[in-house]
Write a structure and sequence with these properties.
Elements: H1 6-17, H2 23-30, H3 34-46, E1 66-74, H4 79-90, E2 95-100, E3 107-113, H5 116-127, E4 133-140
Length: 153
Amino acid sequence: MTQLSILESRMLAILQSDASISMSELARQTNSSSATCWRRLREMEEAGVVSAPVRLVDPAKVGRGMDAFCQVRMKAQDADARSAFQRAMDLEPAIVEVYSISGDWDYLLHIVVKDIPDLENILMTRIHELDCVATASTMFVLRRVKHTTRIPV
């Protein structure tokens, strides 16, 4: 775990709200200098605390207004099966998150699709066809109640 300074915590809180902010504005908002903010940001990037800035896309505005979560149970837990599954997940752009989880299921997938036929296609061609998958259960999202990319710092 990286121990963050007060300045770094303030920088991260600001950058998580607006990654396009200028270094001079970041410095102004953190009561620091541009050079200090730039150096600290580079240090946090090198340490892996932050990654490249991105623009968040509203899925509904690009024709991907349906979220689904799919729980997957594997037939086996050996390294080859896990590797094959993870490679298959990497090949499908609509599967935006994959978590290895504890409990009755082995993986939890977040899938962002156009509609039910799109989801069915992904389930049948990317998940159920895999030899390493024993079973899967899918839940449709009715409405997003809370969604954020901000991590408390």
